[in-house]
Amino acid sequence: MNILKSILLLCIVSCSSGASVPPKQYNDVVNALVDASATYDSMANKSFADSSASAFSRKLIAVINALNNNWSMESAEYYSNFLIQLWNMDESFTEKIDPFVLNHPKVRLEVARLIGQANKICASNFDATVIGDYVRSNLHNSNPSIQLSAIRALGSVGNGQDVETLLGIVLEERNGFAEHAASSLDLLHDKGAYSALKSAVKQVKRDDLKKYITEINEYYDGSIRLPEGGCISNKDSKDSF
């Protein structure tokens, strides 16, 4: 039944999309979403859905992996159309997938991050204001893994106003969180962000974090690779995202 749902949903999305989106590019995502939805619907006690040990949490990981595995610079324009439909919770999705899954912060944050990446390479011009506000609202989520997802996403959808927040996370020196915050500062492509990284490397005490930031600073050559609010052709971009 889940396979049938996936096939039907692929057809609905393909037919309803205004762009020519190759179905193979996103069928893994649809399959993973349908599977996660079925797992959530089958749970007798849904209050344990977000437990790291739950079957549903494992299905969410599969969704995130599928979202990332289907990303490529070359076909980002096609994929971003699908991601925007997903972000907007198009009826073609809500008919087959439980809204709890589509609206789950881990899914929404990863979709937001990938749309932001598409914006940066001119593959999409989706208004980042709404997704940026959503990402910021999850920076202090009670779930640490959601916090981490928000930190990662902010590098793609954020701007100069986020420099202070990300720098603060770097200076807290929490394992993993600080490194992702440093990477997000780099991805902002903002002079203030690079100044913050140069300041951070002098302040942090953890050796591996200091080395990580130093490597970012060595890569920065004094120019802004992406003007704020603009994008750069993926043919010219040095960033692999």
TrEMBL record:
Residues 1-19 form the signal peptide. The keyword Phosphoprotein does not apply. The keyword Signal applies. Transmembrane segments: none annotated. SUPFAM superfamilies: ARM repeat. Keywords: Signal. This is HEAT repeat domain-containing protein. It comes from Pseudidiomarina donghaiensis.
